[in-house]
Amino acid sequence: MTEHLHLLHILHELQQKHRYISEKSICEVAAQLSLPVSQVRAVVAFYAFFYSTPCGHYHILFSNCTSCGYRAGGTDLLRLLSQKLSVNIGQTRKDEQVSIDETSCIGMCDHGPSLLINGVPLVHLDAEKIEQMATLIEADKPLNGWPPAWFHVKDHIYKRGLLLDSSLSAGDGLRATLTRGREGTLTEIIQSKLRGRGGAGFSTGLKWRLCQQAAGEAHYVVCNADEGEPGTFKDRMLLQQHADALCEGMTICAYVIGAYQGFIYLRGEYRYLLPHLQATLMHRRKLGLLGTAILGQTEFDFDIDIVVGAGAYICGEESALIESLEGKPGIPRSRPPFPVAHGYLGQPTVVNNVETLIAATHIACKGSAWFTALGTPASTGSKLLSISGDCAAPGIYEYPFGITIQQILDECGAVNVQAVQVGGPAGTLLDQTAFNRQLAFEDVGTGGSFMIFNQERDILTIIHQFAAFFAHESCGFCTPCRVGTILLKQGLDKIMIGQGARNDMAELQRVSELVRRYSHCGLGHTAANPILDGLQYFSQAFEQRLTPYDFTARFKLDAALQEARQLTRHDGKEAHLEQGQD
Amino acid sequence: MTHKPKLKLATTSLAGCFGCHMSFLDMDERIVELLEHIEFDRSPFTDIKQLDHCDIGLIEGGVCNAENVHVLRTYRANCRILVAVGACAINGGVPALRNHFSLKECLEEAYVKTPDMINPHIPDDPELPLLLDKVYPVHEVVKIDYFLPGCPPSADTFYRFLSELIEGKEPQIGKVELRYD
Amino acid sequence: MVTEPESKFIRIDDQEIPFVHGQTIMDATLAAGVYIPHLCHFPGITPQGNCKLCTVEVDGKPLAACTSPAAAGQRIRNNTPELNESRKALTQMLFIEGNHICPSCEKTGNCPLQAMAYHLGMLHGHFPAQFPVREVDASHPTIMLDRDRCILCSLCVRASREVDGKNVFAIAGRGTHASLIVNTANGKLVDSDIEPSDLAARICPVGAILIKEHGYDAPIGKRIFDQHKINEIGLEKIYIAGAKSDDS
């Protein structure tokens, strides 16, 4: 087991203990692991949950997602708490008691406004709870003395289908796999036409085949449990309720490709699931389903380690995830070579989504025909959706592929719908004219996020939040994404404050296309999607915010004089500048 | 030969060093030739203070204070073609080196911390235009039609650019000679 | 009789050029004397593909030439108005992201970023200047690190590891906060083992890493890009004149 020696885990412990990671610690860790100090420093700087200055004893990160974010309830809860506690957002209070900041979606979109406090999710926030929190923090009450209900994460499953309806006992899939043999199992997976549930939709069987055939000293299976796409939370439920089937899917894959070691890469936001996952692994080892000579097969050894991330959306990209597994910043690699040939430690590696691996277990057990009976010819089986936003019953729904957007809206109780964001910010923004389209890889593809926005919502505010998300999550590796996502956010900032001109819309379009076309990885290729979709389908949302001018100054002229006014103590009319046509 | 009306040309220097204006004068006797086709309006060359409607406005220097903003807007409002001339107008140039510091740091360094200052204080005479927090390129404040890079742009660059405009052609800036220093 | 493997060619802007297995599109085109604009690529150093200037259209799909393997039959578009316009926009992004005040920079005239901007006909930065505040490291007696001009191309990082055998540099942080860091306990260059003759000290395509006391050695008119254009193949030897690997 190398879990406890993983760089991310060591840094997490230090962060917990000292509330930051000092330069001294960085040097010590580098020496301990025989790593360059620059690598450790780069990792600390890369991941959002590591800090170079002390956080408060209570460190609070509000989700800024459109569904589980601090504005989701209509009140700005982030500002409310910061006022109650007299703490500046992003800064630790002088007495080091508390620090408050925001973070990207924490996967609690079926639980209303939510936050992480010292890494633990606290859900269903409202103004009253914020008030009580402030009191508890000032009273220095330990978290285990807070109302336990506040931390209760429930799995809201409203529609069960192919996967959620069927029950499996631990080992069923593996026994079926051993009976069919390596090739037979792989054939079954290929015939099921199972495609990656993370969103990209690559053939799972083909991925396994390519990895199996790739030469290497060792092969690896990695479960991508870095569910970071805003609006997605179905893996959270699967990790909680179907961890056995997940581990079994990894083990089946290991058997097929010839791997001895697997990893679950768990997003840092889901760290609270770690004890449960570890218990599942222990239990499976006891049952002989993990470890050496699995189910008595002398040639079948395989085990799983869990590596926990530290706040980086980009690590959901498979090659960035592998870099992170290797204890480095999550910078996507150049492809080719692909991970199936050149993955973890340069060895052939399968990276599959949680839902994909669970589906594989079921297919191994029940056969491909059971799976292909549902869905469309190009998108077989079912898809788990995380439905959030403006509907009566936000939660998890499982549908056969091919279902229309409208059917889904009807079932979750969504009325007066203005738009749906399918697949999260990286996906597609649909207006009403598209509600007859189907959920399928060949029509509207999705990793599972399904965010509903009714007529009351301001679409531009949502697009602006998505732009801020990508600017925050861009890894910085390539020019178009690193600079372009910032330019897009700034362009929208300008329109949002009512200073946009007609040429700013043209500029947004142009930069969006550059980012989409020239970026290095999927993050950049999709980062401009909400803006491009918005300009196409919701152009009035932009236009109604524009000034009547063709060109306006790109910054707030009057604000740029603020410092000079303070320094000279002049504040008359002549000390101000008006914005206007320029 | 029909006699075309002369193009009216205005120039100004915002946060610049007048080097671009000096380079303009380096056209030497070619200026006489140009004067057959252009006439100067408001410019440091003429000392005309009021800006009339013009065909071409040449802006040297970046935007560092409120007065620069007013002047630049006046030029934009009155010039059919507005041209950013030189490194400072185009990206802030050397004056923008102060953008590394806050205004307070800059002014304190110059007027408070400097040894042997008599009555050290940040100047606050109401006659002085208020400084912007940063020095900005001109195209971030008004719409600019053409850019002539260089520190300064050479006399040849000015000559070629104006000749092309006089001939009614689209100026081919950068296709012949381009430099930023 | 051993038959020759099917002749391996790629077609770039209607010019057919040969390649051998393992070459990238960039390798093959450079060998054939065809120029694809690039800033973060340097022959002999592992390509990384982060500046994206070398993006070409391979059978209609945009790909970075420096990291994409050449494959028989590829039809590649390179020197097109659309691609060059996008390359200009990417170059403008690099300019406005940092503080590139050419008239006050020692690298002016010898700077590939500047020369690239000339090549692409860039007249101004176009996008809003970000004016970042970044740390300068003047601690080393002979080498200067001015992050204001760093374009995060990572050539120094790779050169130090692969050629100098030292690992002096790394990139840390993410997004627009990414920055060049030094692999020493206090993060200062003075404690590193870098030397002015290292490739890492000379490979910088901007004025971020400078050899001290050599600024303005060459007078105007005699600087590299007074005499050369960036699209001449093989200028790298001139950029890095004096580096250790150059002597061998």
From TrEMBL, chain A:
The protein's name: NADP oxidoreductase
Organism in which the protein naturally occurs: Nitrosomonas communis
Cofactor(s) the protein requires to work: FMN; [4Fe-4S] cluster
Family: Belongs to the complex I 51 kDa subunit family.
Domain NADH-ubiquinone oxidoreductase 51kDa subunit iron-sulphur binding: 460-505
InterPro entries listed in its UniProt record: NADH-UbQ_OxRdtase_51kDa_CS, Nuo51_FMN-bd, Nuo51_FMN-bd_sf, NuoE_N, Nuop51_4Fe4S-bd, Nuop51_4Fe4S-bd_sf, Thioredoxin-like_sf
GO molecular function: 4 iron, 4 sulfur cluster binding; FMN binding; metal ion binding; NADH dehydrogenase (ubiquinone) activity
Record keywords, A-Z: 4Fe-4S, Iron, Iron-sulfur, Metal-binding
Automatic annotation (TrEMBL), chain B:
InterPro entries cross-referenced by the UniProt entry: Hydrogenase_assoc-protein (IPR051349), NADH_UbQ_OxRdtase-like_20kDa (IPR006137), NiFe_Hase_small_N_sf (IPR037024)
Reported cofactor(s): [3Fe-4S] cluster
Keyword terms, alphabetized: 3Fe-4S, Iron, Iron-sulfur, Metal-binding, Oxidoreductase
Superkingdom per UniProt: Bacteria
NADH:ubiquinone oxidoreductase-like 20kDa subunit domain sequence ranges: 17-164
GO MF annotation: an example: 3 iron, 4 sulfur cluster binding
Designated name of the protein: NAD-reducing hydrogenase small subunit
The organism of origin for this protein: Nitrosomonas communis
From TrEMBL, chain C:
Span of domain 2Fe-2S ferredoxin-type: 6-82
Protein's cellular compartments: Membrane
Keywords, comma-separated and alphabetical: 2Fe-2S, 4Fe-4S, Iron, Iron-sulfur, Membrane, Metal-binding, NAD, Translocase
Coiled-coil region list: none
GO CC terms in record: membrane
UniProt superkingdom: Bacteria
Family: Belongs to the complex I 75 kDa subunit family.
Protein name: [NiFe] hydrogenase diaphorase moiety small subunit
Organism: Nitrosomonas communis
Lineage summary: Bacteria, Pseudomonadati, Pseudomonadota, Betaproteobacteria, Nitrosomonadales
